[in-house]
């Protein structure tokens, strides 16, 4: 049973920073997605086994994904946040190690953590 446990969500003012963490029960390629009310779940950032990374254009230069394999933890560092970053953020995992950006590419999902950015 794959378990993903997210933490680090909360409320922050625009321009501030927040770091999300996701602890996995094994070694996977990982991704972060987000879903705002009434909208589809969208790709944010992903990291492969070999630590290649990719992020959506809307967050490039502001968000960074990284991993600590010893701790089986993936991080999403969110800087210069904007009100439009407000959403539930989901951690996702896939057994195959390549970099993927589609919701359907991931087999396992966390429960989500709320991020609210106020102006």
Low-confidence stretches: none
Rg, rounded, reads 13 Å
Oligomer: single chain
Approximate strand percentage:
over 45%
Instruction: Write down the secondary-structure element order.
Output: EEEEEEEEEEE
The assigned structural class equals mainly beta
What is the overall number of helices? 0
- What share of residues is helical? under 10%
Q: Cα distance, first to last residue? A: 40 Å
Shape: globular
For the biggest sheet, the summary is: 7 strands, mixed
Question: Overall mean pLDDT score?
Answer: 95
Q: How many E strands? A: 11
Describe it for me?
The chain has strands at 4-7, 10-13, 18-24, 29-35, 42-47, 53-55, 63-68, 73-78, 87-94, 108-109, 113-118. The chain starts with a strand and ends with a strand. The chain is mainly β and 119 residues long. The chain has no helices and eleven strands. The protein is globular.
Please tag this protein with its features.
mainly beta, 7-stranded mixed β-sheet, 4-stranded antiparallel β-sheet, 119 residues, 0% helix
